[in-house]
Predict the structure of HmuY protein.
Amino acid sequence: MKTNFLKLSLLALVLFTASCSSDDDNNDDNVIPPVATQKVSDLYAPQSGGQGQPVSGDFTRFSFSENKIVTTDNWDIAFRGTSIIVNGGTKINVDDAGEPTRKGSGSVSAVGGTFASVTLFPAANTFVQDAAKVPAFPASGANIWYNYNDVTHIITAKAGKIYVVKTHDGKYAKFEILSYYKGAPATPAADSAPRYYTFNFAYQANSTTTF
């Protein structure tokens, strides 16, 4: 009788231990990894034309999930000169051969504050997509990403201008431009090489609504 009781006790202990181990494994699977800030330096965004002439050339496409320049349709934002586009909506200029066709569902919302302070996704109705002659990233006005000095012709990124981007496949990233010049000089000069973007971003791959 004692032998049977001992066997049953050992069996119960084994089952309990296995159950705890299984629960621990499941808990590990449900842990949401922290969102890390990434820095991209000197992303080159050349263009032809400008200064009163038609602008042309291919946009440089970037994927937040891959953290690199891509040539596929799986891009999230793209750069050419000071212009930035999002992979959602329609072409801004249908006659622009260098502007890629939108194949994703991306959009963008401009918000204020520091990069670290933007922790919640903006309201859905604040997100906009590219449209004919109307870029989602504003080309003028308060929400444009840069200041332009018409004396020195220097372009400087606006402090406190953060963009939350809905990616081509429905995820989210927050994005802050730091510099438009190669090497991200603290004080760009007339001989600084332009059209080299340095920016911070944080990509949220999970179904949460926070960064």
Observations:
- The helical segments are 2-30.
- The first strand starts at residue 37 and ends at 44.
- The mean pLDDT is 87.
